[in-house]
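Hey L., structure's done. Input below.
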Amino acid sequence: MATTSTKRRPRKGPEVTVPAAAQAVQAELNGHSAPAAPDRNRPLAKPPVRKLAKDLGVDLATVTPSGPDGVITREDVHAAAAPRAAETAAPVAPAPVAAAPAAAPAAVTHDGARETRIPVKGVRKATATAMVGSAFTAPHVTEFVTVDVTRTMKLVEELKQDKEFQGLRVNPLLLIAKALLVAIRRNPDVNASWDEANQEIVLKHYVNLGIAAATPRGLIVPNIKDADAKTLPQLAESLGELVSTAREGKTSPAAMQGGTVTITNVGVFGVDTGTPILNPGESAILAVGAIKLQPWVHKGKVKPRQVTTLALSFDHRLVDGELGSKVLADVAAVLEQPKRLMTWA
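Output:
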């Protein structure tokens, strides 16, 4: 008689149900439309932020998150984009002495052509993306003031003859930078940034002073670390090194990170003034116009004086009109009467 053996099926354990809301949150963080198995090694970022990182060529795994629960924000991606672009920008090889100057390699030109197309990449692409993000994220306000800087120009000439400044770069930008640092010391709330993720204003107790520099690779903004702690000769030395390094194309990514306030000198191009756009993560930027000899009422009489126009743009979320006006007025007062550097600094 045949026997039939039977196998018992193993008993299933209790089913674990994941709430739909938790699945939705996980799906949003992972950038999928449907729930997916959690990946602990995958950086947390929302789909728009992932797209931004992809457009800028930023690997999210290398980005330090600042958002709640370790979520990467748009600001984190922008902060990582500029130094990455500077690192990947191709260095220009020195041409032979006898060789004729070569045309820009990115441009394609033809005799009689009505258009030329230049690919946007590297530093220029990163700068363009950052400026668009800044212009449409931070509510900009710009104020202007015209200043008699005759005494400042005289002081520049005196400092050039001072033994303490021998071998250093002494120019009007040096005293303008010092005037801005003095204004920030008198109005410290202007030196801040906006934390979108946490909805907080972050006050900085140090000043990393950015100096916008036009280079063959595009506009870059390296900054002088702890510029507020430097003496005038030390500031002159740092400015000289910053400008020389930028012109040689040797500015490091670290030198362009962590800026708090920036100066852009449009006056070197003969421009009177402008409305500068904030660097991402900063609250203010000062534009300096051309210094020109103009008729000016001085001590009740019209005389030729050295005059310039300053423009201060600031983020109106954290700098109101009163604070912005005080900063600009203090900068102007120092440049009009540079002796205030001795009493205010």
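The chain has nine helices and 13 strands. Confidence is low (pLDDT under 50) at residues 1-8, 12-38, 88-105.

-- N.
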